[in-house]
Amino acid sequence: MTVNIGDLLRRRAHLTPNTEALVEPTSGRRLTYLELNARANRVANGLRGIGVAEGDRVALLLLNGAEFVESFYAVGKIGAVNVPLNWRLVPDELEFILADAGATVLVYGAEFAAAAAELRSRGDATAIEHWIQVGGGAVDGTVEDAIAYDDWLDAQPDAEPELSGSGDDLFFIMYTSGTTGHPKGVVHTHDTVMWAIHTVGATAEFQVGDRFLNALPMFHVGALTPSLCVVYRGLTLVALRAFDPNDAWRQIGEERITTTLLVPAMLQFMLGVYDAERHDTSRLRWVMSGAAPVPLELIKICRSIGIEIHQVYGLTETCGPACLITGDDALARAGSTGRSFFHTDVRVARADGSDCDPGEAGEVLVRGPHVMTGYWNLPDATAEAIVDGWLYTGDVATMDTEGFVTIVDRAKDMLISGGENVYPAEIEDVLLGHPAITDAAVIGVPSATWGESPLAVVVVSDDTVSAEDVMAHTRGRLAPYKTVKKVAFVTEIPRNPSGKILKRELRERFPEPAD
User: Fold this and answer.
1) Mind giving me the DSSP string for 200-222?
2) pLDDT per residue as tens digits for the range 395-434
3) Domain-by-domain residue ranges, the chain?
4) What CATH number belongs to 195-409?
5) Is 417-509 assigned to CATH 3.30.300.30?
6) What pTM does this model have?
7) Rg (CA), the chain
8) Strand spans (E) along 53-162
9) Which fold has domain 27-165?
C-alpha cells in the first residue's frame, strides 16, 4: 500500500477528530485535527483552483503555525511538491532557490512581504505566477497583485480533494547550504518521508498523549519530521513562531509539554534563565538535541532538574534520522549520538569502503528507505553522495563494539552556528566580490553564544580596508547567521599543491573565539 503524506492528516482527523492538533501560543489559536484537516482541504482546493497540478512546486516562506502546517499537507494531498524556504535568507538567496526549484506559487507571511515584493520586482527571475500572502501588509513593501490568504481560504470548500501522488512521487524539496557556493535541493518522496516517520516512531520515546513543543523553524527537516510524527501518532503540536528562552519555559509549564527538540545553543540560553520556583518542568520527560555535540556539563545540569537529553544525529538527506541516544545511555555515554534508528543502517567506513575497526575514525555511511532519492537536477552530485544504496555523509565518526556512534568531525568544512549549517564556500563567494579582496577563506571559530561563528581570513589589495568593511560587505548579501563575525588579514591563504585551502592549518592558526 502506497501512502500520500497529505492524506495522513485526513486519516488522523477521522480517528481522533476532537484531539487538539495544533496550538499557537502567539495567537492563542487552537485547532483540533478535524479543524486542521478542514483548513488543509480548503488550501488544497484553492491551489487546484489557481491551476496547481501534480508535480508543480509550491514554495512556503512561513513562520511556524497553522498556515505552514495546513499548506504543507494541502500541497501533498494534490500531488504538488513543497519547497520550504529558510526565512532567514535574503532575496538574492531566495531567488536562486525559487528559480532552481521552478516554483510557480509562493505562500508567504506578512513578515516577509518586503522580501516578496523585492522578488516580485525582479520579473521573470523566478517562475512564480501566484503570490499568496498570509496576514496583513508589511510596512516596508507589498506585492500589489498578491492573493489574500485568509479571504482566499474562506472562499474554498472543505471537502476532501481527490488525492494525487504517492509512493515514489516527489513530496518536498528542501535546500541545504552548498559546499560549492550554491544550495542543493534534497528530494524526498512520499515513501521516503513515510519511512522517516516509521523509523522515528519506532525509536524515539513518544507516548500517547504527548505534547510536543516545536521551537525550531519547520523549514528544517529536524523540526519538520518530528512534527509529521506528531500527526501520525495523534499527539499535540505546540508551535512557537520564534524562540525566546523565557517564553519556552513558560510554554513548557502552561502547555504541559512532555517532549521537545532544541539545539544546544537553545538549551544554553534556557538554562541561563532557568528558575526552579517559576518554571514547571514536571511533565517534560526528554529533550531531543542535535545539530552539534551536546556538552556533558549541559547534559548533567538538565538531568539534575529531571530532564533527559536525547542526542540525535541526522541529515536533510536522510529526512532526519540517522542515530539517536536515549535514557540512561545519554549520560553514561555522553558525547555519543547513539545507535542507528530502527529502520536505519549506519556504518563507519575507511576510504576504500571497508568497515573501520571499533574506535577507528572513518566516514559515516547511512542506508535506509528514508534516504533521499537525490539532489534536484544534480545527477553527478547524487551519484557521488549515494553509492550502492549508502549515503556518504562526509561526517567523520567512530563506532564502538555495541554500535554507539561518536561524531568527531563534520562534513567537509561546514560549521554550525546556532543550529544552522553554514558552508564557507557561500561566504567566500561573497567575499571575493569585494573589489579589494583578492583571496579569502572562511572557517568556524568558537562562539559562547552560537557555538561557532564565521571568521573570514582575507588577502586585500588595499591596506585601508578594515575588518568592519569586510563584515559589512557580507551583510545584506547573506542571511545574518552566515555573515562574517570576525576578520583576520594575511598576506597569503595556505593551499596544498592542488590549490585546496588548508582549513585545518587556518583553524590551528586562528583558534581565538569570536566573542
Assistant:
1) HHHHS---TT-EEEE-S-TTSHH
2) 888 999 999 998 876 666 778 888 887 878 778 878 888 9
3) 27-165, 195-409, 417-509
4) 3.40.50.12780
5) yes
6) 0.85
7) 23
8) 57-61, 81-84, 105-109, 130-134, 147-148
9) Rossmann fold (3.40.50)
